[in-house]
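Risk register update: the risk that structure generation would not scale has been downgraded. Supporting records follow, first protein first.
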Amino acid sequence: MTRPAGRALATAALAVLLAGCGGGAGNTGNDVAASDRPGTTAPPAPTGAKSARPLERSVPVGLRIPAVGVDTPVMRLGLAADGTVQVPPVTDDDRAGWYRHSPTPGQVGPSVLLGHVTVGTHGDGVFRHLARLHRGDRIETRLENGAAAEFTVTAVRTVRKAEFPTDDVYGDVNRPELRLITCGGPRVGEEYRDNVIVFAALSATRPAPS
């Protein structure tokens, strides 16, 4: 799928992206849309960040974020039967999920990974500390073909779900970037009011074994 088509699918699907973030086992999630800064571009890479050549397409299988203690397998996520974005299941072995209609990590464009902040009665989710990341922190992705892509955080934003910045997250960019998304802000019952979004740019790669 081309990036413009992926963007269109994402825009259509955002009606229910990560509304509950695993707040309860019966949650189906149904909250997100729009943009709080229409037409804006992703933040620039940190000063002094390394540039790296884009990688070939290969599905992510692992994610590591040393600053917040994340080291998780990555599952594939698509669209549910009603056309909404899938989220990882609420289980005790919570893991991150890659939205398969986005580029794979290291390809040109925004690669999107989702994760829960809580997983119902199971407790903390894999992205429970995502909001603690800072500009310059490292994010490492492991790919199915043995390659790896390292990203540097450029920005961390907390936005109301009703003001979700669709264009900033899914819109086309001219370099490999990463988006990590979870819930945050005040919790009311089983739901969280906000989304936490981490923006990152590719800074290093390790090619697949020959």
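Supporting record for the second protein:
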Amino acid sequence: MAKPLMIQGTMSNAGKSLLVAGLARVLVQDGVRVAPFKSQNMALNSFVTKDGCEMGRAQAMQAEAAGIEPDVAMNPILLKPEGARGSQVIVNGRATGTMPAREYFAYRRSLIPTIRAAYDTLAANCDVVLVEGAGSPAEINLQRDDIVNMGLARLLDAPVVLVGDIDPGGVFAQLYGTVALLDETDRTRVRGLVANKFRGDVSILKPGLRPLEELCGAPVLGVVPYLDIDVDDEDSLSSRLSSRGHDCILDVAVIRLPHLSNFTDFDPLMRHPAVGVRYVTQAEELGRPDLAILPGTKSTLADLSWLRSSGVAACVLALAGQGTPVLGICGGYQMLGERIDDPLAVEGGGSARGLGLLSVRTAFAAEKHLMQTEITLHPGTGAFSCWDGLVARGYEIHAGDTQIDDAPAASVREADGVLRPHGAVRGDVLGTYLHGLFDEDCVVDALVAQLLHRRGLPVAAARPASDARAYKERQYDKLADAVRASIDMDAVYRIIEQGA
């Protein structure tokens, strides 16, 4: 049975997810079998496993860092916010319904056996489980029936390393205040402290570390610098969403919908040196991009209403009319169609007229479509014709059944050999349900070359990006190097071995 080590934070966005990924990579390099685990995640960036289960994207990223296949046991509870309605509750990869916060807080204790069973599944097949907390254990209003921080540490009998974020300032107060707000039993579980995201000369910080250790009763294991590591982000706190795409040849505008989900779809585009990806929320920001993208969303009908009321819809329609390529992914694809109906009140009920750029109609169904998918693209003669014959691999997460009257944008070969249509295309407008469309280098490179050609620019200016998978591996190794250089790994191994 594996030994646990829990990483908790003084706040959201303290860097827990990245630190877990870094520690996982270090342990794997040292020959340790390791798996990530987060009992409950709240995020709109999700992933679909090979067996069709939905889990947090951050845990899929951590599994990738550990060199293992993502498994829904790594994140048995996923909450996907739906605005005022509450959050969709996903248990063991399947949606169980939408609950307001008060109802979920009353319900969550019943999930403890599910959490324990998921953890035990992982622990039976590895040496160490790296357990990630959520938010802060010092949220004393949430400590009763806690299943994500100290309540989980008690359940698993796990020692805790507490991480503070120095970037906004006040890291000493964060760490000491968090420890001080814990009860005495939980306080003894804190076996180490980490100051994260430090910029500058660490010697300036050192005079405060010894007093901090005395106040908290735990050693400082290290000061981790602010890291420029390019791996998948967990949620809307990502700095990527403030990207402006400066100084690049091509301009790609992604509409930042209020319930934007799976924005990691566009990370491969951001990595291409010829492409500037920017997220826009106002009509006047849209301008004349080389490509406009409507991304995925957790609340398609609500975001379609926002698209119209904000004036962004009118701008997208104007761009399409002027010949600007428009791409819709998942919920964005549904919005590009003629109509969306919600007869079962999956999103609260009702119907809405789409943007009408594609001849498709969507009706929401009770069951989500969750699958990993490989598509063969055949998008006709328009702006996306550069993809003809290319293969893209990713996954689908959608509640809608879409009737396609336009030409399909791609095809999928089912297990019985039968081809089914996927997505739709009309001229310079294309829609697809595939998350991960840009994960294949050939798809990115072909699109960049096409957009440059449409601008009358030499294709050589594209400077094709390196292999995406090799690039990711280098990022994880870079992360591991930073963790080794800044954290006392001998102390970490002792904490793992000694336990709580």
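The radius of gyration is 23 Å. On this basis the risk owner (M.S.) recommends closing the item.
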